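Lab notebook page, bench 4
Experiment: in silico fold of construct C2
Operator: M.H.
Input chain length: 175 residues
Purpose: comparison with the prior construct
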Amino acid sequence: MEFSKIVFDDSVDTDIARVNRATGVLYLNPGIWNRLSEDEREFVLLHENGHLELQTASEYQANRYAVGKYIPVKTLSNSELGKRIQVVSEITNPDKYISHYGVDPVSNVAGALGDIFKALPLIGVGKKGRIQEQNAAAENQLKLTDKLAANKQTLLITGGLFLIVGIVLFFTFKK
């Protein structure tokens, strides 16, 4: 489903956006919307589309829908995944954007991740999770570098042995 109409409306109060599921009209709070980055706007639109597509008032289900569309892990590079995780972290920061429903957005997104991820720290949401993710990435890079070095060494040794065998065979059959 697509939004039938998009309306900038100051009466949306403390919400970033709201969608009328019956009419498909999307109402955006211009005061908050104008402060959002393009990536944050994309997540908000996916969230509101989740309400519309699923025909639900559930923030949990709308967040789950949005996260599933916004963070399709298998199709993103590590850099893009990290950027999108940061956007989800920012847009759901309760100190930055307050829902008038009184729901803690971070907990809501954590629950919405469900089958996609086991826990927020695994995708780097939260300072500690991001540090853990960076450390794990650095450790994996070190392991990969070590593995590549070992492979190069093995290749050089194998190549050297073939060269020696080739030289020996050459001189053996030359006689």
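Observations: DSSP finds seven helices and three strands in the chain. Confidence is low (pLDDT under 50) at residues 100-107, 112-125.
Next step: discuss at group meeting.
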